[in-house]
Amino acid sequence: MSFVKIWIHLVFSTKNRKPLLNTELRYELQKHIIENCKQKDIFLKTINGYTDHIHCLISLGKDQSISKISQLIKGESSLWINKNNPTEDKFSWQDDYFAVSVSESQVETVSNYIKNQETHHAKKPFDEEVNEFMNKYGWKPVNL
Predict the structure, then answer these.
(1) Does residue 125 fall inside a structural domain?
(2) What is the pLDDT of residues 15-64, one digit of tens each?
(3) Do 56 and 73 meet the contact criterion of CB atoms below 8 Å apart?
(4) How many domains does the chain divide into?
(5) pLDDT above 60 for 108
(6) Is residue 103 predicted with pLDDT exceeding 70?
(7) Residues of the domain holding 45
(8) Share of the chain above pLDDT 90, in %
(9) Residue 74 lies in a domain
(10) Which of 7, 52, 63, 69 has a CB 3.0–4.6 Å from the CB of 102, allowing a cystine?
(11) Which residues touch 56 (CB under 8 Å, ≥6 apart)?
(12) For position 106, which CATH number holds?
């Protein structure tokens, strides 16, 4: 029997970082993503976000890839938003995403960071968070 435990911190933003995820929609969206992940055998430990982005802490299964998981979560959730909570313009996520591995010893730290997104972003905008990720991981995004 195969055993795979690869933790990934996945972050994706709304198209053009528009602040479309008001509190009510964001909470409903997160509940929906949790249910969708269960249906698709995606192990989602933690999810949270702010008005223009979502953070997920996932563990990849043996037959899963980051790109496929991202596609499944983002694609299905944008369909759900457009069907159930239409925005003024058609809702979509940015094409790109940010994903880094998380060591087992840091899972709870990252999970707590994700859980505290609202408090975190009351003090720091998403652009600043992205810049910190870029500096920490040596990454140059096109769009996130």
Answers:
(1) yes
(2) 998 999 988 999 999 999 999 999 999 999 999 999 999 999 999 999 99
(3) yes
(4) 1
(5) yes
(6) yes
(7) 6-137
(8) 68
(9) yes
(10) 7
(11) 9, 10, 11, 33, 44, 46, 47, 73, 114
(12) 3.30.70.1290
Percent of the chain topping pLDDT 70 = 86
Instruction: Please give the Cα distance from 3 to 54 (Å, whole number).
Output: 28
Output the DSSP codes for 51-78. TTEEEEEEEE-TT--HHHHHHHHHHHHH
Q: How far apart are CA 48 and CA 115, in angstroms?
A: 6
**In the β-sheet with 53-60, what is the strand arrangement from edge to edge?**
43-50, 53-60, 6-13, 98-102
CA distance 78 to 92: 6
For the chain, what percentages of helix, strand and coil (3-state, to nearest 5) are there? 50, 20, 30
The SS3 call for residue 27 is helix
